[in-house]
Fold this sequence. Notes:
Oligomer: single chain
CATH architecture: 3-Layer(aba) Sandwich
CATH class: Alpha Beta
Helix content: 40-55%
Structural class: alpha/beta
CATH topology: Rossmann fold
Shape: globular
Bound molecules: NADP nicotinamide-adenine-dinucleotide phosphate
Radius of gyration: 18 Å
Largest sheet: 7 strands, parallel
Number of strands: 7
Distance between the termini: 43 Å
Number of domains: 1
Order of helices and strands: EHEHEHEHHEHEHEHH
Number of helices: 9
Amino acid sequence: MTGTVLILGASSAIAHATASAFAAKGYHLVLAGRSPQELQRNAQDLSLRHGVTVTTRHFDALDFGSHQAFYDRILQDQPDLAGMVYAIGLLEDQAVLNKHPELSRKVIDANYTAGALLLSLFANHFESRQSGFLIGISSVAGDRGRQSNYTYGASKGAFSLFLQGLRNRLAGSGVRVITIKPGFVDTAMTWGMPGLFLLASPEQVGRKIAQAPERWADVRYIPCFWRYIMLIIKAIPEFLFKRMKL
Length: 246
Ligand SMILES: NC(=O)c1ccc[n+]([C@@H]2O[C@H](COP(=O)([O-])OP(=O)(O)OC[C@H]3O[C@@H](n4cnc5c(N)ncnc54)[C@H](OP(=O)(O)O)[C@@H]3O)[C@@H](O)[C@H]2O)c1
């Protein structure tokens, strides 16, 4: 494989595993995020293990004024950009958000607004080149609203819908738009949470994400059995679902 893959939110365990799986295929990488030391550590690890070029870039998704300059810089430095992965995500305790609704804005903006705006910029670039892939990491939490995490779930649901529309727009343009819906994954985001089941490893998820541009599926549940779990969850009638403690 040739070209460079841009990974946004590259300090996350899922993003690191995804970057590693892309590097194993021979892609060069740009790791973008807010934690310079973490990114630098990951970059050294990936270039040593896979012999690819790995650069790092500062990116704060909530600094909306910086998006255009970030985009311009990436295109200037990486004319061989093959694709990008939006792995940025923010989960806050729903009980805290219920008490302080004003904190929800950060969750919505990190999971949805910033992803939609940034992917729109890169979509135009890839569309003009008639090639490339845009991968958005959404979540099974976006498939149905539940009392335990509905602000996070709603922002992921909006992101999934945005990706679906973008895919529809770009169908036939040579650009792939891929939605990733992981179930529970063993990362910093879920650390210490009660009641988690069927926990996947970040490596398992990262491998599947890096395979996605070569496969036909546009929406990938990871692990794949989550597709069937969510089919059942979505089929429960609302009058019953609203009484369930989920
Ligand atoms: N773990 C799960 O069970 C699970 C399930 C479904 C979907 N997901 C999704 O998978 C993705 C990766 O999550 P993870 O589990 O690996 O958790 P994580 O370690 O908490 O990763 C979240 C990433 O988002 C970054 N981020 C948050 N706000 C940001 C901002 N304003 N600007 C730039 N970066 C920002 C974090 O950067 P910092 O290090 O700077 O905070 C971190 O790199 C997320 O989109 C998450 O929603 C996770």
